[in-house]
TrEMBL record:
Protein name: Metalloregulator ArsR/SmtB family transcription factor
Pfam families linked: HTH_20
CDD domains: HTH_ARSR
Protein source organism: Agromyces fucosus
InterPro entries attached to this UniProt entry: ArsR-like_HTH, HTH_ArsR_DNA-bd_dom, WH-like_DNA-bd_sf, WH_DNA-bd_sf
A GO term for molecular function: DNA-binding transcription factor activity
Family matches, as NCBIfam families: HTH_metalloreg
Coiled coil: none
Span of domain HTH arsR-type: 1-94
SUPFAM superfamilies, sorted: Winged helix' DNA-binding domain (SSF46785)
Gene3D superfamilies noted in UniProt: Winged helix-like DNA-binding domain superfamily/Winged helix DNA-binding domain (1.10.10.10)
Length: 106
């Protein structure tokens, strides 16, 4: 699975915010509700919920219903796919840089 190019901007925009990055890191350890996540943040529960919605729309988290509570969890397969796509991009750049260096030295 790779991340479609149409969803890359949303994923990077979502990950580019420090608060969302922190929420995603927390959700990588265990699912949690917006209320539980807000307890660790210097922002309101409503602000946390808005950040979670951005992560959900970017396809990085999903919701689970437990009774009346909505819990969020990171989508590991999407994060792994994004990491693989970034690694492939980095390898391509490294290859190009090696070619340029070889041409400059040769």
């Amino acid at each position: 699975m790779t991340i479609g190019t149409e969803s890359l901007p949303a994923a990077f925009a979502a990950l580019g915010d420090d608060t969302r990055w922190g929420l995603l890191q927390r959700l990588g350890t265990a699912p949690a509700s917006a209320t539980a996540l807000a307890a660790d943040q210097p922002i309101s529960r409503q602000a946390v919920a808005r950040h979670l919605e951005v992560l959900r729309e970017a396809g990085l988290v999903e919701t689970e219903i437990h009774g009346r509570e909505v819990r969020y969890r990171a989508i590991g397969s999407r994060l792994s796919a994004l990491a693989r796509d970034l690694d492939a991009l980095a390898q391509g750049w490294e290859s190009r840089l090696r070619s340029i260096k070889a041409a400059a030295e040769g």
